[in-house]
Amino acid sequence: MTEAASAEAQARLDLAAALRTASRMGLGEGICNHFSAEVPGRPGHFLINPQGLHWSEVTPADLVLLDAQGRKLAGRHEVEPTAFFIHGAAHRSKPTAKCVLHTHMPFATTLTVVLGGRLEPVSQTALKFHGRDAYDDAYNGLALDAAEGERIVSGLSNADILFLANHGVIVTGPRIDVAFDDLYYLERACQLQVLGSTTGMPLRLVPEAVAKKTAHQMRGDDTQARLHFTALKRLLDRDEPGWDRAD
């Protein structure tokens, strides 16, 4: 296997693992939402999950290869028509977004359906995202054209995490494992905030200086993200034999 083929095979494996694991965690919604990743060493070439398959059944062989314009280059399945308007725009406009994860996961999406919803610095987990999040407060319906996709992802210019009003979230990262780690902890942070709000008691906000300090302490080392994702793949090996089928 050539180096390029090996890099694509690993990307396929990791993206399938992300989709399967997100399903196990209840972060998917029917057969909607999409995960995409640039093939390492092949700028302008992206893998994305196909139309019609539940995340829990996707294997590396099922992923579809697209170019930067959303044209299918390889794959036995089709891609949902709206899938690449958001993902393509994110990959094209943000070079560091090698992986783009879009979900309607319940607790994060809850913050998008309340007026003025924001991820607040109320938990240590939330501080992982301090200064890294942005908000699109204008819901315009389905992203059915390139212009709407580009409008939406413009909010990612200075952020890794984008909350979409009345819709869901987008998480971007330099690698699949890093992006997935963020996706997981983002939902946990939102869950704590939503549950805390239901008590009727005031949320305990972390002071800005402490929030900044803690966020800085959490950045710069992706060891935990790498180890987390490796552990999640071990769970797939244990519980879902055949998940990594490449043909």
Strand content: 5-15%
Main beta sheet, described? Answer: 8 strands, mixed
Which sequence of SSEs, written as H and E, runs from N to C?
Answer: HEEEEHEHHEHEEHHH
CATH topology, by name, is L-fuculose-1-phosphate Aldolase
Using only CA atoms, what is the Rg? Answer: 18 Å
CATH architectural group: 3-Layer(aba) Sandwich
Count of helices? 8
Q: CATH H-level name... which superfamily?
A: Class II aldolase/adducin N-terminal domain
How many β-strand runs?
Answer: 8
Helix content: 40-55%
Overall geometry:
globular
Number of domains: 1
Which CATH C-level class is it?
A: Alpha Beta
Average predicted confidence as pLDDT? 95
Structural class by secondary-structure content? alpha+beta
